[in-house]
Amino acid sequence: MTDVSPKILLSGASGLIGVNLVRSLAAKRIQTFQLVRKETSIPDPRSILWNPKANPPVASLPALEGFDAAIHLSGANISGHRWTESYKREIVSSRVDTTRSLVRIFQGLKQPPKTFLCASATGIYGDRGDELLTEASAPGQGFLANTCTRWEAAANAAREAGIRVVPLRFGVAFSREGGALAKMSRIFRLGAGGKLGSGRQWMGWIAMPDVINAIEFLIEKQSVDGAINMVAPDPVTNRDFTEALGRVLHRPTFLQVPAFALKLAVGQLADDALLASNRTVPQRLLDAGFEFRYPEIETALRAML
């Protein structure tokens, strides 16, 4: 970071990435103001109440003037529910509609944030087999791909206000504190771990310390504009990941969850996420000079577990 401490606006601070980011920024004495949906019993001067569905979404627009960067991490959990039609609408609304609401606020400010980092996902590429995917790759097909495409389009509208926009295309983020890795490691520790379907599908992943370091890097790196693949430079197949996790936990990995069983259990989520192949690499982060702390899967798993 620069000698002058930036002032950051953050939504989604209660999520796994948000919690880690707030902690890291606080340790660097960087001012962080959080957009929150509910008032707390003890008022916090750095919490700004907002309702994306209201007009206006924020009661006092002057409270949002003059931020160096805004980071939008909100979005309904894609893996916590079966994808009914109503829940798919919630997935889209919690991403696209909230981003549009935030951008409309920025467009009405005298001093909008200089930079807007908005969450997206590698799901934008769809199911692409063994194809190596960089930020220059075209979007794919399917519910997640279409949702991410609309999400990024909503974020990119902030450019009309002269804002640098950086969509963050997250892969699976591994953390010591919860999320996907915690759920999977519990299953593996019981000896019930195994590959999903054929195990040949690729997955992009990233360790939480690299997530936070990359976000802070991108706040400062003004020359980086446009989408960023938030993944480590070592994409792995589901089979490779399964074997690596088994070695780290000293558990067998000979079981297999058949594709048809996954589809029966979780429906469309299986095709769009669990069985989809996404061989994504962080080309633009590497080109910008970002150095990963955990570039390899087994090293990252050992550190996170």
Concise synopsis of the structure shown:
The protein is an alpha/beta fold and 305 residues long.
Structure notes:
The chain has a domain of 209 residues: Rossmann fold, CATH 3.40.50. 37% of the residues lie in helices and 18% in strands. The chain contains ten helices and 15 strands. Helix 1 crosses helix 5 and helix 2 packs parallel to helix 3. The longest helix has 23 residues. It is globular. The two termini are 29 Å apart. The mean pLDDT is 91.
Helical coverage, percent range: 25-40%
CATH topology value of the domain at 7-174 and 206-231 and 279-293: Rossmann fold
Determine Rg (CA atoms, Å).
19 Å
Average pLDDT reading: 91
Give the secondary structure arrangement, pairings included:
Blueprint: E1 7-11, H1 16-27, E2 31-36, E3 47-49, E4 69-72, H2 85-107, E5 115-121, E6 132-133, H3 143-156, E7 164-170, E8 172-174, H4 180-189, E9 194-196, E10 202-203, E11 205-207, H5 208-220, E12 228-230, E13 236-237, H6 238-249, E14 255-257, H7 259-266, H8 268-274, E15 279-280, H9 283-287, H10 297-304
Parallel strand pairs: 1-2, 1-4, 2-3, 4-5, 5-7, 6-15, 7-12, 8-11, 9-14
Antiparallel strand pairs: 10-13
Helix pairs in contact: 1-5, 2-3, 6-10, 7-8
Key terms for this structure?
305 residues, Rossmann fold, seven-stranded parallel β-sheet, alpha/beta, globular, two-stranded parallel ribbon, 18% strand
